[in-house]
Amino acid sequence: MHEIDETLVELFPAIADDLPGIVAIQNHAAATSHARFATRPHRMQERRDWFAQFAKTGPYRMLVARRGNQVLGYACSQRYRDQDAFRETVEVSIGLGEDSRGHGLGTALYRALFGLLAEEPVHVALAGIALPNDASVALHRKFGFAEIGIFHEYAVKNGQYLSSLWMQRLHSTRLPGPDQS
């Protein structure tokens, strides 16, 4: 594995100008894998509405990794469900450009995101991972996520039934150190 060159890659709170890069990553993943369940490309307008939930403070955040003006990846925490009972629960997600995978960028993004969430009223983070996806499962385990269960064949994409592993991380879980990329 090659490490990311942190002098060339910077992590920032996502801004509206990052949205085309984020959508490109999401659309590429949806078109070339089962990691995203979208069955058609996202349009910018529908993603603007989705993007509006993220803020620079609070439990619903989005960070991007940029090299210059290029978005290499993102990590976010968003509302799990609308009911007030879930106000301390977030669902996390990560997306990396095809050329940005396997270099420690996902680890850097999650370390930064969970560092921010440590100061927020978040008790548990949830992640749903379309199977198979060994890299994503390993990344989540590194950050203290525990396997909760599998939703078997609960989605259909390209004529295939898809399953997801659901994992959770309690707020008190320690972050991996910088030497654990």
Commentary on this structure:
- The chain has 181 residues and is an alpha+beta fold.
- It is 24% helix and 32% strand.
- It contains four helices and seven strands, in the order E-H-H-E-E-E-H-E-H-E-E.
- It has helices at residues 19-32, 44-51, 105-117, 134-142; strands at 10-13, 62-67, 70-79, 89-96, 124-130, 146-157, 160-170.
- It has a seven-stranded mixed β-sheet with strand order 1-2-3-4-5-7-6, with helices on both faces.
- Strand 2 and strand 3 (70-79) form a beta hairpin.
- The longest helix has 14 residues, at 19-32.
- The protein is globular.
- It starts with 9 loop residues before the first strand and ends in an 11-residue tail after the last strand.
- The relative contact order is 0.16.
Report the count of strand segments.
7
Identify low-pLDDT runs: none
Question: Structural class, please?
Answer: alpha+beta
> Which word captures the global form?
globular
- Characterize the biggest β-sheet: 7 strands, mixed
Oligomer description: single chain
Index terms:
single chain, alpha+beta, 7-stranded mixed sheet, 4 helices
Question: What's a concise summary of this model?
Answer:
With 181 residues, this protein is α+β, with helices and mostly antiparallel strands. It is built from four helices and seven strands.
